Amino acid sequence: MRLFDLTGEVAVVIGATGALGGALAEGLGQAGANVAVLGRNADRGEACVKRIQDSGGTAKFFPADAMSAGGLKQAHQAVQQSLGAPTILVNAAGGNDPKTTVAGERKIEDIALEDWRANFDLNLVGGVLLPCQEFGPGMVSRGKGSIINIASVSAGIPLSRVVAYSASKAGVLSLTQFLAREWAPKGVRVNAITPGFFPAEQNRKLLFNDDGTPTARAASILGHTPMGRFGKSEELMGAAVFLASSKASGFVTGTELRVDGGFLAQTI
């Protein structure tokens, strides 16, 4: 029995056009899954497909917006016709809107309600709820599936500044546990990966100055991370393959798998 062999599985990765989502898609493809790369940016999506194919995997890009229930339904139908019925779903869409950040003279009472709602829509509604509503029932009806949501080290005790992001990611963990309980009797497992700090396009300005040196916030993060470094996107692959594999994690559901270099293992 090969614990981490995903041959014959169909993995849908929403947000695979981003750095971390793309790494998760590549990891699943290297483990043998047929990967459906979903996202809004076709160029990045096709680049992810090529990386998977170059490593010997099978993948295809399907344009989709996680915020559109109709768009997800169309993508689902296209995936099923092209690759087969999805058995793995990775919800990697999300991010932080600077307009909901509290810093300097900007206070929480200065955040516009529409910006707050937009951040929740991105991380919780489009990031988890809508994809699970679209892809989850099919897995339940077939009695097999693994859903992997992406949380954050800020989902528990929130980080400073990113208030809406932290609150919405806390919701991701709560919804993960709710769905895990609801769908466990039907053979569908629902878990979350909690990444630490991985430099990507959305947080690069937060972590690095224009000259490439770490910002004060980056120095604070590294000082709080026992491993003393940022994560590399490929270091998330193993966590996704583990949670996707029913052989390796068949009795694992409703859990949060941290990949954070020890960030949450200490306070001061």
Automatic annotation (TrEMBL):
SUPFAM superfamilies in UniProt: NAD(P)-binding Rossmann-fold domains
What is a single Pfam family found in this protein's UniProt entry?
adh_short_C2
The terms under GO molecular function for this entry are: oxidoreductase activity, acting on the CH-OH group of donors, NAD or NADP as acceptor
Which UniProt keyword terms apply here? Oxidoreductase
Q: Does the keyword DNA damage apply?
A: no
- Family, similarity comment: Belongs to the short-chain dehydrogenases/reductases (SDR) family.
What is this protein's record name?
Short-chain dehydrogenase/reductase SDR
Q: Which organism is it from?
A: Pedosphaera parvula (strain Ellin514)
